[in-house]
């Protein structure tokens, strides 16, 4: 069985930055746990060091869900292949999350999953407040479907 980590990241106290947390939370409610392994769903919030340790613990693939700013319309979804060589030696912040720094730490701790993708949602509001804006909230269900599609793809590419 292919082990896949589905990790929501972000800060729910900063509007759209809570997108990844919301998607992971909802997926964890709709996906039954598999006793043979399969997908593990978790909301890591801003716990970057925890995510780095988890990424280095033997998963075949990982789907990281996060708010992004790429210049698109709010609520636009992206599938991003992160640059795993970026930020060599970057130091993760225990009170925030920078995916490049988390990936650098995870690489130092042990082998990374063979495939890592980021499902990103164009955020429009990262102000201090709880709750997603309407366009970002509308992107939650399509993002869930996208993650499920990526999980089926990962299962088909079994090691």
List descriptors.
159 residues, alpha/beta, Rossmann fold, 5 helices, 33% helix, 21% strand, globular
Task: Report helical residue fraction.
Answer: 25-40%
Q: Whole-Å distance between the termini?
A: 9 Å
What is the number of helical segments per DSSP (H or I, 4+ residues)?
Answer: 5
The CATH architecture category equals 3-Layer(aba) Sandwich
Order of helices and strands: EHEHEEHEHH
Q: And the CATH topology?
A: Rossmann fold
Uncertain regions: pLDDT < 50 for 5+ in a row?
87-95
Structure commentary:
The chain is an alpha/beta fold. It has a single domain (4-156), classed as HybD-like (Rossmann fold, 3-Layer(aba) Sandwich). Helix content is 33%, strand content 21%. It is built from five helices and five strands. It has helices spanning 19-30, 48-55, 99-109, 134-138, 140-156; strands at 4-9, 39-45, 61-68, 77-80, 115-122. The chain has a five-stranded mixed sheet, sandwiched between helices. Helix 1 (19-30) links the parallel strand 1 (4-9) and strand 2 (39-45). Helix 1 crosses helix 5 and helix 2 crosses helix 3. Mean pLDDT is 87; it is low at 87-95.
């Amino acid at each position: 069985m292919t082990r896949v980590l589905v990790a929501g990241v972000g800060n729910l106290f900063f509007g759209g930055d809570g997108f990844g947390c919301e998607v992971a939370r909802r997926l964890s409610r709709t996906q039954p746990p598999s006793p043979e392994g399969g997908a593990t769903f978790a909301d890591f919030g801003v716990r970057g060091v925890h995510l780095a340790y988890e990424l280095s613990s033997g998963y075949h693939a990982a789907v990281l869900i996060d708010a992004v700013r790429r210049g698109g319309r709010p609520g636009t979804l992206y599938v991003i292949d992160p640059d795993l060589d970026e930020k060599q030696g970057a130091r993760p912040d225990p009170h925030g999350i920078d995916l490049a720094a988390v990936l650098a730490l995870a690489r130092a701790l042990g082998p990374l999953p063979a495939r890592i993708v980021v499902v990103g949602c164009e955020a429009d509001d990262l102000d201090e407040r709880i709750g997603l804006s309407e366009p970002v909230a509308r992107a939650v269900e399509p993002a869930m479907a996208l993650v499920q599609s990526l999980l089926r793809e990962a299962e088909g590419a079994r090691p």
